[in-house]
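Bench notes, afternoon.
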Amino acid sequence: MSSDLHPSQLHQHLQMYTCAKWSFWGSLAVGCGLLFLGASQKPEYKPWVLGASVGTLEVGRRHRQTAKLLQESLGDIGRASRLNFQAWARNNTQPTAQLALTVGSIDVNWKPDNLITDPVEYIQKKQKHIALVGGTGDGKSTFTQYLSSKIGGRVVAYDSDAKPDDWSWLDQKDVIGRKGNFKAIDTAMGNDLKTLEELVELRGEGGDNAITGRERFMIAEEFPILVDECDNARPWIKRHAKRGRRYKQFICALAQNDTAENFGLEGDKDTLYSCFCLVRLGQFGRDYARTKLKDPQLEQWLKAGGKRRFMVDDCPCELDLSSWGTTAMPAAGYAYATPETSGGGNEEVRSPQDLNEYEQIIIAWGQEHRGEVLKARLLQQVSQSFKKDDPENIRIIFQSLADRGLGEVVDSGDRLGWRWSK
């Protein structure tokens, strides 16, 4: 059959073929039934019954002949149907229209009403711990680096898979569990539980002032693995979840699923949602927007932003952390001091937010190495941020700090350096 046949005409021919085929089988069944019926009838009725049977069989024979002719003319019916419909579709529709599905236009300028740009401010306002969920490559480590540099306090990282250059911005004695040393992590978590008990006693006796300076931010990488390998992991997360916040012992547990079981809280989902801010990165954030919040527009917005966009509880967040993965950030908790004021010997504390990223690195080094000179060439070697920087730019940063009373510039040229001084 020609491929120019309209689909509606093909449908009509197929209907005729189907009717003729079934009519033949129906006539055959009725004719045979009448023959059997005629054999048992009285002699005077047999001619009529047999005549009806013969007539019915003749009708069936004719319908069978018609069906055979239609089948021969149609050939391969399924293939003919497919080819003719495709030809008709090509002639009567645009190529993209053949597969188009109306889903509503996406506004590229759309932003969520509850968008937050500072997740740390949100988390600190909630006074909760952090449960960080994300897959491989979603930026979990980069985000924990950002959090710890902003939240403050002594930072401790439990990471059994840490590479030599991971957590380089932390005091290395606070990076526990390298080379799969789960015993060290288990022991440290047990000590954390004892520390929490001590803080409870200290605060009970001396109030909040008695625990000042004991703030900690503890990061537990791949927590489901720690639950399997460390006996103290479950009590560690449960006790800190419920009591740690009051004693400034905050935790960040990382996993690749947001179920309570993955965080060692089997049967205690309420604790997960009441004591933790759930940060969902990558596909986990998009799945949450689609399945839980029922918001496809939010899902598309998250997808369009890549790693910059994620979910913090039910709030979408946009934060560009692309420069944090290779930047040697200063350890959290340092006091940024300025020289003595003319009014006395008290030092004014400068917040890290008053300094830019490069100045923070220099000040942190200076306070760790009081009295030592930070050479420009050394700064280029130890910090990725300054590795490709021009020496003149480093000199300008050194001089800018000195002009504000933050250290002093030493020597010049190849011997250029900077030293922290009050």
